[in-house]
Please model this.
Amino acid sequence: MSDKNDITIPVHAIRRLQCSENVVVLTGAGISAESGIPTFRDAMTGLWENYRAEELATPEAFLRDRNMVWGWYEQRRREVMTKQPNIGHSALATLGKYINEVTVITQNVDDLHERAGSNRILHLHGNLFTPRCFDCDQLWNGMIDYQAAQSSNKELSPPICPHCHGFVRPGVVWFGEFLPEDIWRKAERAVKNCDLIIIVGTSGLVYPAAGLVAMANQDEKYIIQINPRETDHDKFADCVLRGSAGTILPKLISAAWA
Ligand code: BJW
Ligand code: ZN
Model:
């Protein structure tokens, strides 16, 4: 996958961005790849190489083997804490200086958009930093037992909920679970109200998030797609920019406002 550093941004995309008052950015794992966080579908490396993500990211997996699933998420949470936002995240935060309203709708469970300085962020699939009870859904604010974490390579017993004594689970949305209703409603509304949508670093395979792009297309929004690879979203895009987020996003923004 070679990045096209010499990519030219089409004039129609620059003009449409310049005159937009309300922009939505839909992001996926690809935007965090340049921070060293594996994308969802390459995530099964190292300790986890023998598992498919789809087999771990489900409530059934947690019920079957909660120590393995909790251990996997704890490892990922601690890894994210060692990573920094990259120039793609920063470019999106900069967009807020030029455009009246920028809403970042992210499928990512990391906090790199927040740390880069974006301030209107909707986490469709939850995040790694708000564990909650599997049974009563109460947020859990306790401390993780790091000694226990170190004593085992990949398995870790989840904490116990102080309210109902159920097991604490990661604050993410697994396959087969509904997205948080208020966040989903806000995301739909943001797409309905926007002038232009930028899609960055998502394979477009996971629904209902991927459906937001079809919705934008139906409402005749201007769609810019940024990804080094072809995806199902390309067919809806008015402008496909093939390359990495860290290369294309700063280029797009400086083409519009340099
Ligand atoms: C770069 C780059 C660089 C690389 N720069 N780019 C309708 C049709 C079909 C199926 C369904 C449907 N509706 C619902 C479903 C079922 C299911 C689903 O979508 N399944 C599909 C796999 C077929 N959806 C659900 O279950 C959802 N719930 C739901 O619909 O509730 C209603 C319901 C309830 C009960 C029964 C039925 C319906 C919930 C989905 C939750 C997804 N959760 C996960 C895990 C989160 C926790 C965790 O992280 O462990 O979210 S799955 C995983 O995929 C994660 C991601 O957010 C999500 C999307 O992945 P993403 O971000 O696109 O990453 P990748 O890895 O796929 O792609 C990376 C891209 O980056 C690639 O394109 C690269 O080329 C690119 N890239 N480097 C720019 N430098
Ligand atoms: Zn509980």
